[in-house]
Records
---
Amino acid sequence: MLEETVKKILQARVYEAARETPISPAPFLSRRLNNTILIKREDLQPVYSFKIRGAYNKMAQLSDEQKAKGVIAASAGNHAQGLAMAAKQMGVKAVIVMPRITPDIKVQAVRARGAKVVLKGDAFGEALAHARELIDEHGYTYIPPFDDNDVIAGQGTVGMEILRQHSGPLDAVFVPVGGGGLLAGVVAYIKYLRPEIKVYGVEAEDAACLKAALEAGERVTLDQVGVFAEGVAVAQIGEAPFEILRHWVDGVITVTTDEMCAAVKDIFEDTRAVAETSGALSLAGLKKYIQQQNAEGETLLCINSGANTNFDRLQHIAERTELGEQREAILAVTIPERPGSFKKFCKTIGKRMVTEFNYRYADPDHAHIFVGVQVKPGGEDRQAVIDKLREAGYPVEDLTDNELAKLHIRHLGGGRPKEHFSEEVYRFEFPERPGALMNFLTHLPGDWNISLFHYRNHGAAYGRVLVGMQIPNGARAHVEEHFERIGYRYWKESDNPAYRLFMA
C-alpha cells in the first residue's frame, strides 16, 4: 500500500501551480521548550494553503473530455481556493458551491481566482447535495478535498519535501487532520523511506474524527463538530486516507481552542506569519507532545498548513492566547462588600499582574469579582494562587476552562435582574447569515420571554450566542425539542457556576 502511494507522490504534478515551501526554524520556541522546533511553511503557497497541491494533481489526471465539461466542489475553505486557482491555470471552468454562512472574504477570494461561486444552504451537507445536483445537470467532475488517492498523492509531496530539505535527525512530525488527506500522504512517504520517524495526527478536541475511528476500528461519523478551526471541521475521516492511517500513523493528539490560539501566537513570534487556527493546529499538538512525554533535546517538525484567516478573528484569538499558554488564570472570587476589600485582595495576590477585573455592585454583603491573574505555565502556579486565596478566606471558583465564562461572562459581568425570577440559559452557535436570529425566534413559542441575550462576532462562519429565557413551567420538559427543530448547536448553561455567580 505504501509503495503504491509513494509512486503516485513521486509522479504527482503539483509544481506547475504549487511551490516548494521552506522549513523555518523556531528559535524562540525551541529555547523555551528545550527541543529543536521546525515549521514547514505551507502558508507560503500562492493560495496560502497546502490544498493547491491535491487539487492540481487531481485535475492533472482528468481527461480532455472531463476538463471540457468543467469541475466542481463543495467547500467553504482552502480547498475552494486551491481548486479555483488550479482550474484557472489549466483553463478549465470551475464551480464552487459554498454555504451561505461562508465569510465574504473567502467568497471573494474564490471569485478573484476565476471560479463561479454558488451560495447554497447553511451547512456543508446542503452545499454538497446541491453540487451533486449540478453534476447530474451539467456533467461536471467533482474534485474531492481529501478522500481521493490522487489528492492524497498531491498532499504527500509535503512529506517528500520534508525529507529532502531536512536530511538530519528528525524524531517526530506533526500534521493537522481534517479529512486526513494531508496526513495520509505525509505518513505514506515518511514511513516508506524513514520508518523510524514518528508521525502524529493532530485534531481539535471537538472535531476528532480520526481519533474516534482508530478507537472504534472503523470510520465513524461524529454527532457534532466544532467549527472554531474551520479548516479541519470534518465529521468523518476519509475512506482512502483511513486505509493508510489505520496501519501507519503513530498516534493522534487532540488540542483545545485555547491551545490553538497560543500556537497562532507562537508561529507569529518566530516567523511573523499569521496562521489560521487549523494552520497552527499541528504546533499545538507538538507542544502537547512535549508536555506529555517530557521530551527534551528532540528535533520536532510541524506543518503550518494555512494562513487564510479573517482579520476580525484576531481579537478573539488574542484573548484566548494567554489561556492556551496557561499564563492566565480566570477566577471568580467572593470578597466582602466594604471599603478596602479590593486593596486587601490585591495584597493577597501579591506581585502578580492582574490581567482583568470585572465587578458591579449587586449585594450589600458580598461582591463577586471576575478576575484574570497572570501565572506561570504548567498549571501548578494557577493552583498555588487558588490555594493562597482560599487560605486567606476567599471562596474561589476556577473558570479558566469554562467556555461560558470566556466567551460571554467576561463581557457581561455585573448585569443582574433587580428582582428574582426563573430563567433557563443556553449557549448557541448561530450561522453568520441574515435571518439566523429571526429563524431562532420564530421557532420559540410565543409565551417564552427572552431575558438575556449576548452575541459577539468573531469573524467566523458561526456566531457564539448566550440566551436566557423565561419559560412557563409546563413547557420546561420540552425546551430542547424546539432547539432540535431549529438545528443550531446548543449547550445548557443554567447550572454553570460562571452564570450563577455573575448573572443570576
---
Amino acid sequence: MAGSEAAWAAAKAGLTVVIHEMRPKVATFAHQTGKLAEMVCSNSFRSDDSEQNAVGLLHWEMRAAGSLTMEAADTHRLPAGGALAVDREPFSQYVTDKLRALPNVTVVEEEITALPGDGHWIFATGPLTSEALGAAIIAETGTERLAFYDAIAPIVYADSIDMDVAWMQSRYDKGETEEERKAYLNCPMTRDQYEAFIDALMGSDKAPFHEGEEAKYFDGCLPIEVMAERGRETLRHGPMKPVGLTNAHKPDEKAYAVVQLRRDNALGTLYNIVGFQTKMKYGSQTEVFRMIPGLENASFARLGGIHRNTFMNSPTLLDGEMRLKSKPHIRFAGQVTGVEGYVESAAMGLLAGRLAIAELSGKSLPPVPATTAMGALVSHITGGAEAKTFQPMNVNFGLFPPVDGLKGGRRGRKDRYKAYTDRAKADWQGWLGAA
C-alpha cells in the first residue's frame, strides 16, 4: 500500500513512475496474488472516527490529501460498526487498475535485489522484504535487520456458522445504520467453555520457528495462544471480552466470553475471527476453533499462519524526509520503516511520494507538523523514538504534543482527543496548502 500511495502521488503530480513489483514471479508466504496493495492479515483499517481516534484522524488526513488507499477503501467499504473494513479482493483490484490505467505509470514485475547507486527511489517493500534486498540493506547500513512475527487470523465460511447460537451485533450497538449496528457475528461462551478453550489453546501444536529465529511479536498483533500464555483471563479482557453485547437468543444470560467475527467480503460469505491471529498448526486450529460455540461445524476458507515481519531501525538510518542517510537518493516508506498497520503504512507512502515530488521540483517543503497524525508518525520513526528499543508503532495520541490547559486522565479524554483532532486537521490543511 505504501508503494501504491507513493506512486499515485508522484504520477498525479505529472512525474513518470516505474513500480517494481516482485510478485507474482517471486512469492511470499502471506500473499496470494500479484496485485498491488494486497491485504494479507485483516480486512480492517480500524476506527473511522476522526474526532476521537488517532487512526480515524489519519484516515481524514489521507482523504484530504487525495489518498488512493482511502478512495479504494471507501469504494469497497463493508459494514463494520464504527470501523472501516473493506472487501479485500476488489479493494486491491481497484488500486491495481487505477495505477495501471495512468499513462505515466509502468509496472515492472521484477525483484530488486540491490540498492541502486543513482536515480530517485522509494523502497516500500513492506513487512515481507525479500531475503536478497534485506541482505543489501544490511550491507549498506551495517546493522542487523530487525524482525518480529506477524500472525494471520483464520477466515470462516458464513454458511458453516450455527446462527441458532451466534447472533449479529456490533459492540454497544455502534454504528449509524442498522447494517453497521449488526456488523459483527458473536459466539458466546460460558465459563466452563472458556476454560476448556484456554486449556486446548495452551496445549495445541504450534508451528516451529526456523533454526536461529527468535519470536519478536508486535504487541498489537499477538498470536492468540501467546496472549493466553500471559494469563488465563487475558483473552477475556482482549479479543474475547463480553462487554457491550447482549445474546439475542438468551438476552437474560450474560456470556463469560464472546468471540467476534467480522465480515470479510461484500457478499457476506466470509467472516474472519477478530483478533485470532495464530501460529498453531493447521490441525490444531480446526480442532481448537471448532470448540467455539456456533463454530462446531465451521468450514475454513483460510487458516491462520505466521510470517516474519521486517523493519529498519529508522531513527538511526533515515533523515527527517525519510531518506536513507547514507544514500539520500533513496527513501523508505511503509511498514519497513517501523510503522505498524495498513493505514500507517499507506500514510508513510503518501508522505514519501509528496516529499519526493517536492525534491524533484526543487521546492522546499516545511516539516510536516508533529501535531498531525501524519507528522506524529514520521517524527516518531525519524528521530522521536528511542533507537535502542525501537519497535513498530501504530498511530496513537501518545505520539502527539500535548494541548495546553486540558485535563488529563480518563475523565478528560473526550475533550482532549477532540482538541488533538481539531488542531491536527487545521495544521494538516495548512501544510497541504503550503505543499
